[in-house]
Specification:
This protein has 64 residues and is mainly alpha-helical. The protein has one domain. It contains two helices and no strands. The chain is elongated. It starts with a helix and ends with a helix. The model has no long low-confidence stretch (mean pLDDT 87).
């Protein structure tokens, strides 16, 4: 690891910057899998919230 890059990461991002730098140095398959899983979790939570909103609005509309 380049000491200059390590110093810049520590100054700009601290522990998080160094951790992200190490994460990006992992094999490409690992990085893409983790990013894909994170994206699917985010997308899944958005779909769940949309479903909950539609269900709630549908029950309110049925009562009215």
């Amino acid at each position: 690891m380049d000491p200059e890059l390590n110093r810049i990461a520590q100054v700009s991002g601290g522990f998080l910057g160094v951790s992200y730098e190490r994460f990006l140095q992992m094999p490409v398959a690992v990085v893409l899998t983790v990013l894909w899983l994170g994206g699917m979790a985010l997308l899944g939570s958005c779909v769940l919230m949309l479903y909950t909103l539609v269900t709630l609005l549908g029950s309110v509309w049925a009562v009215a």
